[in-house]
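User: Fold this; tokens only.

Assistant: Input:
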Amino acid sequence: MNSPKNDQTNNVAVWPEKLYTQKEVDALRIHEQVESETQTAAKQIRLDNITVANLVKKSNRILVSLSSHAFPLDLFPDTLNVEESRITVINRHLLYSEVHSVDIKDISNIFLNKTIFFSQLVIISKTFEDNEVRIRNLYNKEAIFARRIIEGLRIFINKQIDTSSYTNQDLIAKLQELSTTAIVT
């Protein structure tokens, strides 16, 4: 077994089997740096994959879907789809339809106009040129429910809460709990 040798000038113990040339030290440092960069890149790829999976999951989940109703018959009902990150309103007409998508984060306000039988939701957006999207002839309970869900989602997004881990039922229950303000009738 080799014993440490004392250097006469600085009194430093040196192990003979641990001596490396400067080229070997540089090669080891480069190898460690490349290995560290590879691990960092692999970790970033895993994080990106998780982020993309969560975005896909959130973008494809419809929490609430409502259709308008009119007396006596509505041949072209409007549809409101509330997803985790956006709202889509489809206004149907005889020969065409209009589709408006609004990100939840871009909604500045939601108004609920009630009559005896039906309600109207007015969604005010920060990004639209005309600034509002309307969906008429919703049942009162459905319109109140949709408004509460949208308001809850707005709060979640403002607080930067990730909702992708919730099931649809759990998320809707949490959103309803969050938005329990009484609505004047």
